[in-house]
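Batch job 17 of 40 flagged for manual review because the log was empty.
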Amino acid sequence: MKRIAFFSGDITRGGGTERVGTLVANALSKETGYQVYFISLTHKSTEPAYEIAPEITRSCFSKKWINPGPGYLPVIFKLIRYIRRNKIDILIDIDGVLDILSIPAKWITKVKLVSWEHFYFYNEMGTSYRKIIRKMAARYADAIVTLTEQDKGFYQENLKIRGRIQAIHNPADYMQPQNDVPERNYENKIILSVGRLCEAKAFERIPQIAAGIKNNYPELSFQWLIAGEGELRAQIEEQIRRWDVEKEVTLLGHVSELGALYGEALVYVMTSRYEGLPMVLLEAKMHRLPCVSFDIMTGPSEIIQDGIDGYLVSSPENENCAAEKMAHGIARLLTDHELYQKFSNHTQDNLGAFRMDAVKSCWKELLEQL
């Protein structure tokens, strides 16, 4: 019996990292030969945002959030006691920044440590210490798990990895593939983008791209819907006015149920500057939506089959050139029905690697080799 503990900042939160961590832990807990635990620094809520299998034991170390610094020292000792008391064989850090706590605990207890990267190598999330922690993980972790093969390559190019390193995709099983989608109304030209209105998502690029479609394809009437809320709303609204696309681009704000939007849209567009593994592209493909995305670090190139079920647009330094190329790709899908249908028919061809069976198999192989 292998005793596996997933270590999180707060597993009760409703973020993407917590969702994926819960899905993988739940799947492993149902496998013969695994006893699964969840440890959190704290629990903001009494109940987790995502259902945790009843056979999983859940614990936390503090009633309040603990910021990095001297307050981490008592947590290290609590973690050591927890590992020893529960005879944990493998500790999986759901957020790599927790390696700063887990590595000292590993030195004392000899527990096997897996550092699970949920962002990408060059994204430090505004904190320089992530770079330092990644170097520590490369030296001391028994395994590093990245979300994409591309990010695995970044680790190997920049760090000397002493343990194993493996790319394992996030499972998309919280979404169900829409195999019986009725034929869409191709005359209803709706483009969809979903996400937080923040710097990473770069939705302020959308008005210029929309203007490119409007000006170069004047006969094409379309609506671009942006579902999400965030700190850059005012900036995006200003760009909408600047590019004179008030009739074409609409900010919907927060939308709790996205299924109807995916059902109405013809094309999904991602304008992000960077991602880890963009689950929105998987959601769109589950709904048989062709996708157009900038070919950024990291993820789109492992989800979109360029020229088969969507377009990957190279993002040169010249923003005007990038916007023009993306506008052209979107317009092709909105004006060529035969091409559109061909792309839509292929959207689910490569989703097998993102199904839980495939993801679970990768995790089991890794855990058995530690």
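Reviewer: the log was empty due to a logging misconfiguration, but the result itself is present. The chain has a mean pLDDT of 91. Unflagging and moving on to job 18.
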